[in-house]
Amino acid sequence: MKLLVLGANGQVGWELQRALAPLGEVHAWDRTAGDLGQPEALAAAVQALAPAAIVNAGAYTAVDKAESEAALAHTVNAEAPAYLAQVATRLGVPLVHYSTDYVFDGSGTHARTEDAPTGPLSVYGRSKLTGEDAIRASGCHHLILRTSWVYAARGGNFAKTMLRLGQERERLRVVNDQWGAPTGAELLADATAHALRAVLAQPQLGGTYHLCAAGETNWAAYARFVVDTARAMGRTLACQAVDGIPTSAYPTPAQRPLNSRLDCRRFEQAFGLRLPAWEQGVRRMLAEIT
Ligand SMILES: NC(=O)C1=CN([C@@H]2O[C@H](COP(=O)(O)OP(=O)(O)OC[C@H]3O[C@@H](n4cnc5c(N)ncnc54)[C@H](OP(=O)(O)O)[C@@H]3O)[C@@H](O)[C@H]2O)C=CC1
Ligand SMILES: Cc1cn([C@H]2C[C@H](O)[C@@H](COP(=O)(O)OP(=O)(O)O[C@H]3O[C@@H](C)C(=O)[C@@H](O)[C@H]3O)O2)c(=O)[nH]c1=O
Ligand SMILES: [Mg+2]
């Protein structure tokens, strides 16, 4: 059974190559093999490969840059998934796709379920929502997995930025009023493999799911956890304190939701899995890179 991974060099794509290997023959396409910026050519190549499942981990993920590159973000995050959904429909195979907490407006303090109203605040969030909607509208078998605050040992992410800044500066200023759950690419890939196996056997399990680590934190508390844990593991850091600041004191081109809490019970129940606390995966990642 051929399984296609797109965006194979990203945080999630890299881990998918490992996690999907026991399910079949993984074809891992990075941007040179499968350019999401050229959706028509990509669709033709996927059609020719005829995999038993398409797993799209590629995306335009530069949230601030997307504000000034809306057309490219739209092509990669919305148009390409629509083309992939067409191919999945023609081949009669499932399309697995990732989306984000940034499809929501972040009001309130509750954890959102899958059917909560969306309301993206940024170009990135809008482009991801348009991609989701196109997949749902296509009628293809699909698994749309909305996650949050992804990190991995390999690739760029907030935790690694904090380690770099923590080496250079005595104090870090980080927003403390945006809440969510850091989610490891390893966990995402492993949970995806379980869910994909289930969906291949029982297509009715397909749909849209929230999938992130358990618990919650804010970016400042997360940064503090990263700095403290890395130091306890022996890393030398200049950082003496992480100062929590309001979002208003950290202006960025893209607006981010204040409440990124996702209710993942639907995923846990459908696939019989238990999502571990976010700290567990962050600790493992830090141990791996320290
Ligand atoms: N990162 C996060 O915090 C979150 C991510 N998500 C979603 O999870 C999924 C995986 O994200 P993650 O692994 O973290 O993201 P990364 O940014 O680590 O990886 C994205 C990958 O997409 C590739 N890519 C970008 N543009 C193109 C293109 N035109 N053609 C082909 N490939 C392209 C990148 O290629 P290259 O390496 O060459 O640049 C990169 O390898 C995405 O759908 C993302 O929206 C959801 C919530 C949070
Ligand atoms: C570097 C830095 C960031 N921040 C803030 C900015 C922002 O509100 C928050 C996180 O910064 P980042 O730029 O890492 O966040 P961002 O790139 O917006 O992360 C998002 O990426 C996309 C792809 C997603 O889908 C989301 O789930 C989320 O993970 O921390 C500080 O307050 N101080 C700092 O020194
Ligand atoms: Mg970022």
UniProtKB/TrEMBL annotation:
Q: Name one Pfam family in it.
A: RmlD_sub_bind
* Gene Ontology BP annotations: dTDP-rhamnose biosynthetic process
Q: Which pathway does this chain act in?
A: Carbohydrate biosynthesis; dTDP-L-rhamnose biosynthesis
Per the record, the domain of life is Bacteria
Q: What is its EC number?
A: 1.1.1.133
Q: Cofactor note from UniProt?
A: Binds 1 Mg(2+) ion per monomer.
Q: Which GO terms describe its cellular component?
A: cytosol
Cofactor dependence: Mg(2+)
Keywords assigned by UniProt?
NADP, Oxidoreductase
Which reaction(s) are listed as its catalytic activity? dTDP-beta-L-rhamnose + NADP(+) = dTDP-4-dehydro-beta-L-rhamnose + NADPH + H(+)
Q: Name one GO molecular function term.
A: dTDP-4-dehydrorhamnose reductase activity
Q: Would the keyword Chloroplast turn up in this protein's UniProt record?
A: no
Domain named RmlD-like substrate binding is located at 1-289
Q: Which family does it belong to?
A: Belongs to the dTDP-4-dehydrorhamnose reductase family.
This molecule's function is given as: Catalyzes the reduction of dTDP-6-deoxy-L-lyxo-4-hexulose to yield dTDP-L-rhamnose.
- The name under which this protein is listed is dTDP-4-dehydrorhamnose reductase
High-level lineage: Bacteria, Pseudomonadati, Pseudomonadota, Betaproteobacteria, Burkholderiales
